[in-house]
Specification:
This protein has 89 residues and is an all-alpha fold. Helices cover 81% and strands 0% of the residues.
């Protein structure tokens, strides 16, 4: 079923986005990753992003594009479903 295929594609793309997000923490030490609360880790990672926004910019732009592509696919699927509605006959 096309919906299942789209959900699988979306999950794969979302997983790739999660990996991109995790890479934003590459500059944080292993010790900090093990001991600091999430908000503190995010703060430390943000300092790195302030110095070089390219990784965050690329991650956000990629997910933005992926979300739009999925939206188009879902719109096409919905239009097909509504066009083939047996109640319209």
């Amino acid at each position: 079923m096309r919906l299942r295929e789209l959900l699988d594609v979306f999950r794969a793309r979302l997983d790739a986005g999660e990996r991109d997000y995790a890479r934003l923490f590459d500059g944080v030490s292993a010790e900090d990753k093990a001991s600091l609360p999430v908000k503190e880790l995010q703060r430390k990672a943000a300092y790195g992003v302030l110095e070089d926004r390219s990784a965050l910019s690329e991650a956000v732009l990629t997910m933005r594009f992926q979300a739009r592509e999925l939206e188009k696919e879902l719109e096409q699927l919905y239009d097909i479903i509504m066009t083939d509605d047996p109640e319209d006959e």
